[in-house]
Amino acid sequence: MMRHALLLAVLVLALPLGSEGARAQPAPTQCAAPSELLDSDVRLPELAKRLRARQPITIVAIGGASTAGTAAGDGEGNAYPRRLEEALQRRHPGVPITVINKGVPRQTTDEMVARFPSDVFALHPTLVIWETGTVDAVRSIDVEGFAGALESGIAALRQQHAEIMLVDMQYNPKTSSLINFEPYLDTLHRTADLQEVYSFRRYDVMRYWSDSGRFDLVDVPNGRQAALAGEIYRCLGERMADAIDHAAR
What we know:
This protein is α/β, with parallel strands linked by helices. 51% of the residues lie in helices and 11% in strands. The chain has helices at residues 2-14, 28-31, 45-53, 65-68, 80-91, 109-119, 134-138, 143-159, 173-178, 182-195, 202-211, 225-247; strands spanning 57-63, 97-103, 127-131, 163-167, 198-200. A five-stranded parallel sheet has the order 2-1-3-4-5, sandwiched between helices. The protein starts with a helix and ends with a helix.
């Protein structure tokens, strides 16, 4: 029961609820993040080839509540996969790019892997964006088990010839003081390095926004919560598009 309550707290505190976020338009400089948080030696050659040839590209985003758009207050409409699709379509006019949202709240990494055959493989994606780790941390899943589930999922995706981008947890000072994310962050990043998979360091990007004062994730005035949620998801979509373009060079 305590774990269930804590998970609900994560979902509520990490990004506020509301529908007004759809109207939020953060300034480009507010969305900026240091290049070292996005740069990687990992490349996405198949996606790059399809971009050059202007061939259709399907991206599947599978993950938890933040992928589903729970905190955005407007379902998939404000979630970062939709914002990523918009950013990529704007940057690559004439290339048919579709980002399909397969987020389901409150699932562990193992439970997401079990959904791969129906929710990922059947769609034949060029790229799979896999956001995971939050529920594992909340439930204190064995870290070695978490690593094994990541490795199993990566192997399964590669068998389907899909390129992969892992996405780590959201950052919020409140939830980070309640939950020990560090072992899961370290495990996800280490697994990505060993498996030569691109890792989008969402936790560090959001911590940079918080520490630099670009977004105040703690003292949010009443009536401002929904707009803040929309801005952050839009910014994440832009920075993910940066990462994809970098890896597809």
